[in-house]
Design a protein that fits this description.
Aminopeptidase, Alpha-Beta Plaits, nine-stranded mixed β-sheet, five-stranded antiparallel β-sheet, 21% strand
Length: 424
């Protein structure tokens, strides 16, 4: 049995080891189904075997480590799923995703070392494609586990024209047996994931861990504003139909609406903008910009979108321009199951830690896993709230506490399953 500090030290060493597997020359870049992903998958598989798990690679490249139940009971044919992803963004940090996989392996090691009996099995899952960087897909490996992949998804191609199905074959997966990756609904007990917060809330409040209440829903739009080009020196301000000036007012309105929804952790981002004709002495005639809006529940997000559609059209009319608002991505809010939140809350209480519940503004594999089973997440404080960046950092002590909390939450679920005849 290791102390939380010792677990954190081991987690840091494993994360440093994984960080060496990269497709980049001088940074951590590990894209789905790349050679670096394959090398990282092999290292994770080795750790799983060392932890006493039976290991397999599923058709979509997910590494699965399986611990059989050790106590008889009606839950014995079910499995608690624990996991995260081992792919990264370009020029990444070493904690996003990988910490959840490492935490799952260390938790299983501790369960076995402490002789904790489980009336259900535990599967540790190391997904790929959570980041959605290489192919025009996202969460395809966890989606396969949840039964949400169709054959046409494998026709997606990367920027080099390589089809996902061909990359799978090279990786060692099997695009012809995708259906076999899916768990039966009555087979999965729940899904738990440990993840760095990727935000500043826990650090600001001096807390090492937080319990996730939901994974924010997301809507993304392409907004096109059309005005009229004109000479920058000869068209009076009052007679202009300036698409860029109208867009600027629209962006301030977007910010205003998002700030009003702060009680629902609402955020709105204009991340990309183009203006045409793009000459220094010509009034912009065409502007296109993106909008990403998120909140901790669907109703306030959808209400904000409806308000924005009215207000942006009003701005366009007043300024003598036109606007179109086209949605190109929608992902509903994923709630975290109260029973799993409570199991994590009990674990934090046992560790003498404050109970802090918060929503996740970032997407996770739980979005896909929610289609299969209940989802629970534990956040770990990260320095400065920085993620998707080489400066990404989580402290050894915080990571150790996260592993210990995961062990205790699994114990709680085992006790509930044993005492309730598997109504867990």
């Amino acid at each position: 049995m290791r102390t939380p500090r010792e677990l954190g030290v081991r987690a840091e060493a494993m994360l440093a080891d994984l960080a060496a597997f990269t497709d980049g020359e001088d940074n951590l870049t590990r894209l789905y189904l790349s050679p670096a992903h394959r090398a990282a998958a092999d290292r994770v598989a080795l750790w799983m075997r060392d932890a006493g798990l039976d290991v397999a690679l599923d058709p979509l490249g997910t590494v699965r480590g399986r611990l059989k139940p050790t106590a008889p009971g009606r839950a014995g044919n079910r499995r608690l799923l624990i996991g995260s992803h081992i792919d990264t963004v370009v020029n990444a940090g070493r904690y996003d995703g990988m910490l959840g996989v490492v935490a799952g392996i260390l938790a299983v090691e501790e369960i076995r070392a402490r002789g904790i009996d489980l009336p259900f099995g535990v599967d540790v899952l190391a997904f790929g494609d959570e980041e959605g960087v290489r192919f025009p897909t996202t969460l395809i490996s966890s989606s396969a586990v949840a039964g949400r992949v169709v054959p046409s998804d494998l026709d997606a191609r990367d920027s080099d024209g390589v089809a996902l199905r061909d990359a799978l074959v090279i990786f060692g997966g099997d695009p012809e047996t995708v259906a076999s990756a899916t768990y039966a609904r009555d087979e999965a007990l729940a899904y738990l994931e440990v993840h760095i917060e990727q935000g500043p809330v826990l650090e600001a409040e001096g807390l090492p861990l937080g319990i996730v209440t939901s994974i924010a829903g997301q809507s993304r739009f392409l907004i096109a504003v059309t005005g009229e080009a004109g000479h920058a020196g000869t068209v009076p301000m009052a007679l202009r139909h300036d698409a860029l000036a109208a867009s600027a007012e629209m962006m301030l309105t977007i910010e205003e609406v998002a700030r009003a929804g702060s009680t629902h952790q609402m955020v709105a981002t204009v991340g990309r903008l183009t203006a045409k004709p793009g000459a220094v002495n010509v009034i912009p005639a065409e502007v296109a910009f993106t909008l990403d809006i998120r909140a901790d529940a669907d109703a306030p997000r959808l209400a904000a979108i409806a308000e924005l559609e009215v207000r942006l059209q009003s701005i366009a009319t007043r300024r003598g321009v036109s606007v179109t608002i086209d949605k190109f991505y929608e992902s509903p809010t994923t709630p975290c199951a109260p029973r799993l939140q409570d199991a994590l809350a009990d674990a934090l209480c046992d560790l003498g830690l404050a109970e802090r519940r918060l929503a996740s503004g970032a997407g996770h594999d739980g979005h896909a896993m929610h289609h299969l089973t209940d989802v629970g997440m534990l956040f770990v404080r990260c320095r400065g709230g920085i993620s998707h960046n080489p400066a990404e950092f989580a402290a050894i002590d915080d990571m150790g506490l996260a592993v210990e909390a995961l062990v205790k939450a699994i114990e709680r679920l085992a006790t509930d399953a044993a005492s309730s005849g598997d109504r867990t």
